[in-house]
Amino acid sequence: VAPVKAVTGPRYTTRSPPHSREYPTYAESNMPTDTSTTPTPLTDLNLFAGLSRSELRAVQRLMTPVRVRAGRDLTREGETGREFLIIVDGTATVRRQGRVVATLGNGDFVGELSMLAGVPRTATVTADTDLTVEALNRREFASLLDQNPRLARKVMVGAIRRLHAVDHGPAD
How many angstroms separate the CA atoms of 145 and 153, rounded? Predict the structure, then answer.
């Protein structure tokens, strides 16, 4: 796992210099580093199960690790989404119209509906604990799905399950 960047300011740059994008408002630069835990490696997350080492390296190059302080909103219902986020370490609560609909943890992701369909965020996601997330902007997300059809399927199935759960309760 690449070291987590903690950055400030209105813009930030990923580990790979040609990439530059707007700085997420939820990211923190002054969070204390907790050396007692290490973020879960991508290989341990269900989303990335079955990918080869070279595929995992390609995925890792697209991502930017970001730290988020407990209590910060990762997404806000109704707002335009600019990134896809994968929780690598920590937990977050999902609220829709103010009602708690889910709790997310390591390996869960948010933002796929906004990235796939260009629709506003469907829920507010708030960090319950300090989080480490991997962030991808729209271009990086599209590249990720184009390069990894198995991963694209997992993301789409996750989006469908999430929509079903919101409308009908958890899927069997």
Answer: 8
| Residue 125 to residue 73: CA distance in whole angstroms | 6
Characterise 58 by phi-psi region: left (phi > 0), alpha (psi -120 to 50), beta (else).
alpha
55's CB contacts (< 8 A; 6+ apart) are 147, 148
Joined together, the tokens standing for residue 124 give 């507010």
Pick the closest to residue 159 from 128, 115, 95 (CA basis): 115
Between CA 167 and CA 121 the distance in angstroms is: 16
**0.70 cut: is pTM over it?**
yes
Phi, psi of 166 (to 5 degrees): -65, -40
Parallel/antiparallel/unpaired status of strands 124-127 and 92-96: antiparallel
Angle at 158 between CA 157 and CA 164, to 5 degrees: 90
DSSP characters over 67-82: EE-TT-EEE-TTSPP-
Q: Where are the domains of the chain?
A: 11-168
Band of the pLDDT at 44, cuts 50, 70, 90? confident
Fold assignment, 11-168: Jelly Rolls (2.60.120)
Element housing 64 (H / E)? strand 64-68
Name the β-bridge partners of 48: none
